[in-house]
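Re-running Orotate phosphoribosyltransferase to confirm reproducibility after the cluster update. Everything else is unchanged from the original entry.
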Amino acid sequence: MSTTDLPPWKSSLISLAVSSGILTFGSYTLKSHRVSPYFVNCGLFSRAKLIRAISEAYAQSLNSYAQEHSGWDFDVLFGPAYKGIPLCATTVEKLAGLDESKWGDVGYSFNRKEVKDHGEGGLMVGESLKGKRVCIIDDVMTAGTAIREAISIIESQGGKLVGIIVAVDRQEKMPSQSEKDGKGDDGSPRGSTIGEVRRETGVPVMAVLTLDDLIVGMRQLRREDEVKQMEAYREQYKPSD
Ligand SMILES: O=P(O)(O)OC[C@H]1O[C@H](OP(=O)(O)OP(=O)(O)O)[C@H](O)[C@@H]1O
Ligand SMILES: O=C(O)c1cc(=O)[nH]c(=O)[nH]1
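Result of re-run:
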């Protein structure tokens, strides 16, 4: 497939994300302090047909990966708070719908941002991660901070990380020390966040959509101004790997 093509399901998902205000354009300060001309708000997959579309896309991606890599499997889908929470629950339901005999017993789990000190108490909700093979599901990966926090929760709960899937990989280089100090990017070449996470963990890191896909999708929608802004941003934060 050329860089100007997308499978029809990706084009439809991008079109749905634009028409429902999930993918928007403007000036957005990210968690990494970078200022981006586009933003993906996965919290807005908040209507039945939207959460169905994104959970089907995650489930198809995970099921295809498992079919293509025999022996790769997981017991629990872990969705970090907050936006990972509806994603893990809806995606395991879609996995069971795809193949009940393979995925019917897969569990889901998520953390609380504040530890609960009454009732059943604790940090975690859902399936226990102890001794389980765990796959992380999250919305967007930029600098990888959220994913690293999720990995440390899984380790602290005695789980074994076997995979990561996000809806959108923004394909950005890792933040520099100068960015972390709030002084902006020093322009030095650095590897991609996703590449770094793959090297650190040794597990597959999947994305339903990438920035490259979003650019092709916006071009198909004839939104040339937005395409130019996204291309300039991609160039500015392009990873060296
Ligand atoms: O790769 P990163 O640079 O970490 O950025 C991306 C993450 O940051 C945001 O979540 P946030 O931590 O704000 O939590 P939320 O789900 O409560 O919005 C966003 O939803 C991603 O999960
Ligand atoms: O990096 C982020 O903070 C971020 C980017 C994005 O597109 N969407 C989001 O929810 N967070």
